[in-house]
């Protein structure tokens, strides 16, 4: 990413959250936006997640509301639950298709895309937008065992950014620690 490059952030919420959690920290989304805004011309930051409509309270709802009011475009998809063959409750309807469609629609207006996901299903998307001349950075990690990023996605990206390298810049600081001298 260069100073004047038109850049958009595409965050696969469930995947990104799991990656940060595996690395042992919580993301401060205000700091995340500031970190990427200083290095380029940030056109848009989009956050994709699944919401359970039938639940009275969802742990992701406060985050979604905060993001929506603080510089992010939030795309939600209703989760669908089902019981698998072994009788366990499962969820489906991850927001990958919506993310892919948005990347393809915006690619003509961007120089750089930053994808926050390690999901190997995004490799064909990355290749498609690279063919349009858009540079793609992927943020995930290889610092866990096993790595949170699919090898084929990491190899396809123009730049791989290990989330552990961003930790100091984007980690959520507890309020009590923030007010200490």
Concise summary:
By secondary structure, the chain is an alpha/beta fold. It has helices at 13-22, 29-37, 61-69, 96-106, 123-131, 151-156, 163-170, 175-178; strands spanning 6-12, 41-51, 73-78, 80-83, 89-92, 112-116, 135-140, 159-162. It has one domain (6-171): 5'-nuclease (Rossmann fold, 3-Layer(aba) Sandwich), CATH 3.40.50.1010.
Descriptive overview:
With 181 residues, the chain is α/β, with parallel strands linked by helices. It has one domain: Rossmann fold, CATH 3.40.50.1010. The protein has helices spanning 13-22, 29-37, 61-69, 96-106, 123-131, 151-156, 163-170, 175-178, and strands spanning 6-12, 41-51, 73-78, 80-83, 89-92, 112-116, 135-140, 159-162. It has a six-stranded parallel sheet, with helices on both faces. Strands 4-5 form a two-stranded antiparallel ribbon. α5 (123-131) links the parallel β6 (112-116) and β7. It is globular, with a radius of gyration of 17 Å. The mean pLDDT is 89.
Tags for this model:
about 180 residues; Rossmann fold
Write the layout of secondary structure elements.
Blueprint: E1 6-12, H1 13-22, H2 29-37, E2 41-51, H3 61-69, E3 73-78, E4 80-83, E5 89-92, H4 96-106, E6 112-116, H5 123-131, E7 135-140, H6 151-156, E8 159-162, H7 163-170, H8 175-178
Parallel strand pairs: 1-2, 1-6, 2-3, 6-7, 7-8
Antiparallel strand pairs: 4-5
């Amino acid at each position: 990413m260069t100073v004047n490059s038109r850049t958009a952030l595409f965050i696969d919420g469930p995947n990104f959250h799991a990656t940060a959690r595996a690395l042992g920290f919580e993301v401060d989304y205000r700091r995340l936006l500031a970190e990427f805004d200083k290095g380029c011309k940030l056109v848009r930051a989009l956050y994709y997640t699944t919401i359970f409509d039938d639940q009275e309270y969802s742990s992701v709802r406060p985050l979604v509301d905060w993001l929506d009011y603080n510089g992010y475009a939030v795309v939600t998809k209703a989760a669908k639950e089902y019981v698998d063959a072994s009788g366990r409750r499962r969820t489906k309807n991850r927001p990958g298709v919506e993310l892919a469609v948005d990347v393809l629609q915006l690619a003509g207006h961007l120089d750089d895309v930053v994808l926050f996901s390690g999901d190997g299903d995004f490799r064909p998307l990355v290749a498609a937008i690279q063919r349009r001349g858009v540079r793609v950075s992927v943020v995930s990690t290889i610092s866990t065992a096993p790595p949170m990023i699919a090898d084929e996605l990491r190899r396809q990206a123009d730049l791989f950014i290990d989330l552990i390298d961003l930790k100091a810049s984007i980690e959520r600081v507890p309020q009590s620690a923030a007010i200490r001298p």
